[in-house]
Each structure stands twice: as C-alpha cells, then as structure tokens.
Amino acid sequence: MSVGITKARELGVSTVGCASTGNTSASLAAYAARAGLRCIVLLPAGKVALGKLSQAMFHGADVFSVRGNFDEALEAVTALALDGELYLLNSVNPFRLEGQKSIGYEIVDDLGWKSPDRIILPVGNAGNISAIWKGIKEFYDAGFIKEVPRMTGIQAEGAAPIVRAVEKGVDYIEPVENPETIATAIRIGAPVSAKKALRAIYESEGLAETVTDDQILSAQKLLARREGIGVEPASAASIAGLIKLLDAGEIDKSEHVVCVVTGHLLKDPNTAINACKEPIEVDADINALSKILKQD
Amino acid sequence: MSVGITKARELGVSTVGCASTGNTSASLAAYAARAGLRCIVLLPAGKVALGKLSQAMFHGADVFSVRGNFDEALEAVTALALDGELYLLNSVNPFRLEGQKSIGYEIVDDLGWKSPDRIILPVGNAGNISAIWKGIKEFYDAGFIKEVPRMTGIQAEGAAPIVRAVEKGVDYIEPVENPETIATAIRIGAPVSAKKALRAIYESEGLAETVTDDQILSAQKLLARREGIGVEPASAASIAGLIKLLDAGEIDKSEHVVCVVTGHLLKDPNTAINACKEPIEVDADINALSKILKQD
Fold it and tell me: Is residue A62 within 8 angstroms of chain B, CB to CB?
C-alpha cells in the first residue's frame, strides 16, 4: 500500500479510496492518515470482520457501508474514480502490485535465495497471487533463482471462480453471483486480477483448489493450537488447501512449500471467540480453582 | 515470553499459567500452544478487551473468568503456583524480565547505539519499565552507551499507585483498591514489580505522571489519524503522558524521547469502534455516493 500512496502523493491527489472486504481498507486508512489524504472506503454491509472495520474507522476514513457485496462495492468505487472523485487504490491499480510483488522477493530472501517448490495462498481479489508471481519471475529473469515455485491458489467453496476456470482450463472467469464464505477476506465473486492470477497458475504449472468453511476453520484452529500462529479464516484457507492437496496426493510430502498467511487472528476476533467454549466464571478462590483444575 | 517458556520446558513442567488483563495471556497462550504445554489463564471477569480474550481462547488456553480484579486474579494464580498446580509466567517470574529487558537493547540499537534522553511508557504491572531499565543499565555497564535515559512511567488516573509513591518520594506503594480505567491493560492497583519500577524512576531521575481516560483516548486518536499508528488505549497512555508533560514544561522540546506503544489497536477493537461515528449505509449506486461525497 505504501507504493500506492507514494504514487498518489506524486500525482497530487487529495482523496484516495477503495472497495474492500476489510484488509485493504484497514491498510489504506492508516497510510492515508499518515500521508494527510482523505480516504473513502466502501465496504459490503454487514460482511466485514470487526477488527478491520475498527481500523478503517479509527484511522479516520470515511466509511460507507454498501448494500451489496464486494464486487458491487468495487464497481461503485471504480465509477467514482473514473468520475475524478478519488484515486483508486484497489489492486487494479498497478502500483499496488509493485508493492505486493515484494512478498515474492521476501520469500526467496528468507529461504536463502532459493525458490520453494510451491507457494500456496488464499485467492480473493487475486492481487497477491498475481503480484507474487511477478516478483518471482523478476528474480528468475535476473538470475537470482534457478527454479520457480508452482503457484497454488486456494478459494472458498462458495467463492471459487478461479478454481472453476482452472478446472475448465480457460483463461477467463465466470463471476459468482452471490459469493459466500466465513472467510470474509476472500468472499469475492469477480476477482479484479483474475486474468493475471490464471496466468500465474498456468505459467507456473500450479494448482487451484477449493476448501469448505469447515476445512478453513479446522485449519485455523490447528495452526493456532499446534504452531501458536493466530490467523484469520481467509489466511487459514492456504493451510486447509495444503492439507486437502496432500491428502489427495496432488502435493508430494517431499515438496518444499510456503503458505502465505498474512491476516492476523485479531482481524476477526468474533469468529475466533465463536469457535471456542465460553470461559468458566469462578471466584478468586484457590480452593474452588484447584478443584476445577483437578477435574479436567 | 519466549524466555519464560524456554525455562518452563527446561524445568519439565506440563502446565503454565498467568493472571492477565489480556496481553500476557494472549502471548502465553500462543507460546504454550507452540511448546505443547497446558496453559491456564485467570482474567478479571468482564474487564478484558475482546481481541486479547479471543487470542487466549483460540490458542487453546483454559480461560477462567475471575469474579474480581486483576490483583485478585494474580493472587489466586500465585497461590496455584505455590501449590504446584502450574508454573507462573507473570512478570514476577524473573525469566520474563530477562526477555523484556531486550526492549531496552532494541531501543539503543535502533538509535544507532545511542541512548535517548527519555523513555516514556505505560505502567500497569510495572514489568516493562523495570525490565527496560535493566537492559539499559546492562548496556551502560558494558560501555555501549555513555548516558542513560530518564525512565518515565505513565499511569491512568484511576490506577496510579506508582505515581502516588513518586509524589511522596517513597519506595513502596499503597495499593489502589478498585483500579479503574478504559485502558484495561494497565488497570492494576497493586503492580507486582512496583519496587523495581520505583527504583528505575529514582535511579534514572525520571518522572511518573497520571493521565485521564479522556487524555488517553484523545492521544490514541491523534496517533491513529496523524501518524497512521493504531494502538490500544493503554499504549496511547505514553503519548498522552508526553503531551501532558510537554505542556507542563516538565519535558523540554529539545529532548530526544522514545515512547513505548506495544499494544496494537486490534487488541481492543470495540473501544476503537465506539470512538467513531457509524458508517453511512448506502446503495451501491454512483449517483447517490457522489452526492454524499460532495456534501461533506
């Protein structure tokens, strides 16, 4: 987002904006505040996780709750941008991808200047998979790495236009009218970077796979309880996808796999709490506590 | 927390625990999950911010909601520890401070191996101010820095036993019976590291000051809207304290000051949302949106 905001300042615009399932708006609102720019965000009404909403609002964005889904919000904000009302900073803006591609650089850097065999990531609006592939290809072309990873995109069962396109082997998507999943960050029916994402998957001989909400939630819990890593549901989709593809034999156990999980658990605290049993209320009394602990 | 957990594993304990206003339990739950240890946390009922609660629960801790305040919860968990039920990982455990002191190292490192003139930080259970001072002194004794910062602790008006002690010039606190503040992370009446914190303030010729909840919330908003940095109320206390001490002429504008703000906005999303006006609900319609934007 910092690259996009830098561009906005270069252009001398006073207002930036985006449609968002939450994460883009949280990021844009914070960067816009720092840059002293007005920020307008359009969110699908009632479908944005609490944490993200609090970030956009608290960093002072003008938040509009749009009666419709993300795709309709994106259409509306695009129209506003074309009307000159704001500078659009969704990932349809190429400067966004220039920043996002550095995730690809970072992966290679963290692995000691080697490419993993595969990168698995959740796919919503499809900016990340497109951008990471761009970064990887640049490093490959520059001779920094000798191999490239298979780009593997995971979508929620109820919002999987890219997986459907890969199943058919085509390079275009049929938008999903009413996308639905608990993973709000990838609840998108008409990904704006669909063509680029499909190219990334095909060029890298990657895969695309769906996961159910149950698989997402169970991967989210596994990651939190076994690894101590707390992520929001959308991010857990990459782990759920890894498990499914391993079970199906599509991924080999010997592969060196990187899963991208960029959304923190705190982005969606309510989903986390709803997945747990309520705390036991007790008196601050050692005997009572001792007894309960021994029962377990 | 990683140092504390490492110690717990060395000792071969199976269960770790803490009392917490939220942040310690969130951290302990995640580390304990990674280490494969059972984790028991005691939280004051109804007084823990949503994000932190979601972390403790989702990382699989056994969460007990104690009818009482933090100080009573700490007393209860200490009794459990003395009974051998768990290994206590509040900052009364010296291995916790060994980890926390590295914040002092980091500050010096980040400033190019120089000490700032002053470090300002929120003071709740008083582990951080004690630990950071320990780290700073170690660097001073080793000759890495030639000066030391004035350690400046900020407490909420309704939970300020350390500030009261400094006002009287004594090295002990009188516990606050019913501590109260919106900054839940420092809502503590009987800080366990009070003596060490007072020593840090006196030795460094520092200060202690109170701030009101209104000052905290306004500093929180300022930081989010001017700097793009989202913190929870307790962390904003350090900024509120800086503003108050500058206004009072206690801190000079020429001083090089570091404020510690370690708690993210997402730790307490509800307080953030309550401080903002509600999003405007609109149709995904360019004309309607355009009209509203022009009105502003």
Answer: yes
- Asked if A43 lies within 8 A of B289 by C-beta distance, the reply is no
Give the CA dihedral B170, B174, B180, B186, nearest 10 degrees. 60
pTM above threshold 0.90: yes
- CA B143 vs CA B27, B140, B205: distances in Å: 33, 5, 20
Q: What is the DSSP string of B228-247?
A: ---B-HHHHHHHHHHHHHHH
Q: Using the 8-state DSSP alphabet, how is residue B122 labeled?
A: E
Is B249 buried (19+), middle (13-18) or exposed (0-12) by CB count in 10 A?
exposed
pLDDT band at A296 (very low <50, low <70, confident <90, very high): low
Smallest Cβ distance to B284: which of A31, A54, A73? Answer: A73
On whether the CB atoms of residues B152 and B206 are closer than 8 A, the answer is: yes
Mean pLDDT of chain A: 95
Q: Do B65 and A284 touch (CB under 8 A)?
A: no
Return all residues near A199 (Cβ < 8 A) that are at least 6 apart: A130, A133, A171
Q: CA-to-CA distance for B121 and B155, rounded, in angstroms?
A: 9
| A205 dihedral zone (left: phi>0; alpha: psi -120 to 50; beta) | left
Q: For residue A264, what is the DSSP state?
A: B
pLDDT for res A201: 98
For the four alpha carbons of A9, A130, A110 and A266, in that order, the dihedral sign comes to: positive
Inter-residue long-range contacts of A110-113, CB under 8 Å, 24+ positions, other chains counted: A111/A256, A111/A258, A113/A144, A113/A145
Nearest to B26 by CA among B45, B51, B52, B47: B52
Residue B249 corresponds to which tokens in the numbers above?
């002429």
